[in-house]
Amino acid sequence: MFTFARTPVEDWLLFVAGGTGIAPLRAMLDHALRLPRAPRISLLYSARRSDEFAFIDELRAHGDAGLLELHQTVTRD
Questions:
Q1: What is the pTM of this model?
Q2: How far apart are CA 46 and CA 42, in angstroms?
């Protein structure tokens, strides 16, 4: 089972996604960002090509706002 705690106790969360695997993590990220005391969040997100990142504008906006640390990797460009 792949779940996310309603109220995580950790101070720092690391999410790791590849390609379309970002879909379930997007919901978890959204939940974490809405917590009254949001933890520090890092996202390592990999795709085959730079044009294959889903939700990238939204994720970059969160990064630009200082809400998460976004780290992208490309494996085949």
A1: 0.91
A2: 13
Return the pLDDT at 21.
Answer: 92
SS3 of 24, please? Answer: helix
**Rounded Cα distance, 45 and 47, in Å:** 7
| Per-residue model confidence (pLDDT) at position 1 | 62
41 sits in the region (left: phi over 0; alpha: psi -120 to 50; else beta) called: beta
Reply yes or no on whether the pLDDT at 16 is more than 70: yes
Q: Which two tokens stand for residue 19?
A: 């390609």
Are 8 and 41 in contact, with CB atoms under 8 Å apart? no
Q: Which residues pair with 44 in a beta bridge?
A: 16, 71
